[in-house]
Amino acid sequence: MTTPAQQDDGVAKPLQVGLLGIGTVGSGTFKVLQRNQEEIQRRAGRGIRIASVADLDVARARAIVGDAAAVVDDARRVIADPAIDIVVELIGGTGVARALVLEAIAAGKHVVTANKALLAVHGNEIFAAAHAKGVMIGFEAAVAGGIPIIKALREGLTANRIEWVAGIVNGTTNFILSEMRDKGLDFATVLKEAQRLGYAEADPGFDIEGVDAAHKATIMCAIAFGVPMQFDKAHVEGITALQATDIRYAEQLGYRIKLIAMARRAAQGIELRVHPTLVPARRLIANVEGAMNAVVVQGDAVGTTLYYGKGAGAEPTASAVVADLVDITRLHTADPDHRVPHLAFQPGALAATPVLPMHEVVTAYYLRLCVADQTGVLSRITTILAEHDISIDAVLQRESAEGERQTDLIILTHDTREGRMNDAMAKMQALPTVLAPIVRLRKEELN
Ligand code: HSE
For the chain, which residues make up each domain, given as ranges? Predict the structure, then answer.
């Protein structure tokens, strides 16, 4: 074990940080470290200093850091600098960020990253490289921004066999869903409004298609169950097809529709899925509105715990980045074998539990069928469900308007296997009295 380098006055020298990318989160990190440096030093046991910054926009970077740090346009110069102890990657994406993180590890630097896509897709390679080199990877900021959910899953809940994790981990989509419900507007209208207000990116694809949430679900799944990152096995469904009609019907039945990122332990494997989900309106998580994030974790000893806060933004995300910097500062002289393992479980103890294909997933369903309003239609549909051993929980039929010959039939089911539901839906869809594609959403009680 080494001891921290001493300055001339005998005080441990501040740990030197190199920042790759100083956009929103980077500048937040710089500000928080500066503003709270005294308290942070009292907690960490020594100072933490951003010594150099790499950004293609050198002038903007210089305007943020002034003379407090060196500014260069080449990230590799920061990585190669022997004075730098920790590299903070805030570039994003899976291309150059992957190469730079691997280079930083190879150079013996600890790494802090907010990059969920990078970890979900290349995490296994990155953690293996970090383990071999004996360096730490901090990624609290990668999931749910300022909410310390990684710390909670990895350390606070370490006594538990975790049963499931369910989160609202994408603020953009939660904002859109809240607006659709509050104002009764359709998806496209609210998306435009979100972009005008600056909530949604000009290219909001990763958010609205559920990919961003699936990256975060993949990371939470790995830590909760001690399995490798398996983003390619995640079921990913966004909110682009969601209709205001279904939000209204769900509400009438006592549910809210949320984009839930779910990782659950099942008898035969693990469920890893992101999709719009009906959640009982009385659950706390169903009342998380706007761009806020929340994660519910069910552990066998602790029961249900809920974590709520800002999932994005300069200082909330910086809060997580700086927490990682403090952790690394406290632990970097420790024997690597005695540090908290990256994925909560020891690297040699990861399980090969499979991620279940979607047809094996067991959940409850909301179905909306546009049907001819005539005798026997409901009975034919309920017969098909009964023949597939699918139990009905509730039925709602819209009252037809005067002279209208069709109506909406909404059915909530109890839990069933998705493969069975697919078969039943194919049979129902083939009925001549079912007049439009059936809308199917999943429903979780989360109790
Ligand atoms: N785009 C994300 C969101 C924020 O909308 O929540 C960063 O992960």
Answer: 15-148+315-349, 150-310, 362-443
Ligand 1 centroid distance, CA of 114 (Å):
11
167 lines ligand 1 (CB under 6 A): no
Query: With a 6 A CB cut-off, is 144 part of the ligand 1 pocket?
Result: no
What superfamily would CATH give domain 15-148+315-349?
NAD(P)-binding Rossmann-like Domain (3.40.50.720)
Report the pLDDT averaged over residues 136-154: 97
Spell 336-362 as b/e; 16+ CB within 10 A means b.
Answer: eeebebbbbbeeeebeeeebbebebbb
pLDDT (tens digit per residue) in 211-220: 999 999 999 9
Mean pLDDT score, 83-92: 97
For residue 199, report the distance from its CA to the centre of ligand 1, in Å.
9
Whether domain 150-310 has CATH 3.40.120.10: the reply is no
**Does the Cβ of 199 fall within 6 Å of ligand 1?**
no
Instruction: For residue 216, indicate whether it is catalytic.
Output: yes
Tell me the C-alpha distance between 2 and 44, whole Å.
16
What is the 337 CA–ligand 1 centroid distance (Å)? 33
Average pLDDT over residues 59-67: 97
In terms of DSSP bridges, do strands 70-72 and 48-54 run parallel, antiparallel, or are they unpaired?
A: parallel
Instruction: For residue 344, give the nearest of 213, 170, 150 by alpha carbon.
Output: 150
pLDDT for the residue numbered 1: 37
Structural tokens at position 8? 């001339």
Measuring from atom 8 of ligand 1, which residue has the nearest CA?
Answer: 312
The string of pLDDT tens digits covering residues 108-121 is 999 999 999 999 99
- Report which DSSP code applies to 155: I
311 lines ligand 1 (CB under 6 A): yes
User: Which band of pLDDT confidence, cut at 50, 70 and 90, is reported for residue 7?
Assistant: low
428 touches ligand 1 (CB under 6 Å): no
Specify the pTM. 0.95
Q: Quick one: pLDDT band at residue 11, thresholds 50, 70, 90?
A: low
- Report whether 356 contacts 415 (CB < 8 A): no
Which atom of ligand 1 is the closest one to the Cα of 114? 8
Interval between CA 222 and ligand 1 midpoint (Å): 20
Task: Report whether residue 212 contacts ligand 1, using a CB cutoff of 6 Å.
Answer: yes
pLDDT of residue 338: 86
